[in-house]
Design goal:
There is one protein chain. With 189 residues, this protein is mostly helical. It is 63% helix and 2% strand. The longest helix has 28 residues.
């Protein structure tokens, strides 16, 4: 809840005409930890204590990957929801990163700026994929006998990967661009 509380305070003055952004990449990392990475950490501790306490696992790698797993899922949400967040005056893409590409948070409302934003956006898509890959490593480290837990981890990763693929193909700054993971999509585990 600390991340959500910070979010409410940080963006309380945000409007569609007054877009506020995170300052640095570190701020984004702290945000993704506080709203989702900590969930991966908590989930790992709970499962280790109550579900598979005696399994021979490398706890430091498992914990680090659990945190990255949560951060990756949150980055999927941030990248997917970028236009909606901007309309609400919130920008999770840090100002320091935008300025390195000659952009301000307000510029992201203009779909014509996608070419200028593309390099930075692709960087975040790659980071998301790397975190989801850590989530997959996390999942495959879990004891095989805990198939339901492995599936509970696998599905969000697969949906996240599919979402990143769709985000990569479109102009996320265009309000008409929507991501749908439809029932017709086939998943092979």
């Amino acid at each position: 809840t600390q991340g959500q509380e910070l979010d409410l305070r940080r963006f309380q003055a945000a409007t569609s005409d007054h877009i506020l952004a995170l300052d640095t990449r570190s701020d984004l990392d702290a945000y993704t930890y506080s709203v989702a990475g900590c969930v991966g950490e908590f989930w790992t501790h709970m499962c280790r204590r109550h579900v598979f306490p005696d399994a021979a696992l490398n706890d430091s790698i498992l914990l680090a990957n659990g945190i990255r797993f949560g951060k990756g899922l949150q980055l999927v949400n941030i990248l997917r929801d970028l236009p909606r967040d901007l309309r609400q005056g919130r920008c999770y893409i840090p100002k320091d990163q935008l300025s390195q590409h000659g952009l301000r948070p307000q510029d992201l409302i203009d779909a014509e700026r996608m070419d200028q934003f593309r390099t930075l956006y692709e960087d975040y898509l790659r980071q998301t994929e790397e975190n989801l890959a850590a989530g997959w490593q996390y999942t495959t480290m879990l004891p095989i006998r805990n198939a339901r837990i492995r599936l509970a981890c696998s599905w969000p990763i697969l949906i996240g990967i599919r979402t990143v693929e769709k985000l990569r193909r479109g102009n996320v700054l265009d309000d008409r661009f929507h991501i749908r993971i439809s029932q017709s999509d086939t998943w092979w585990l």
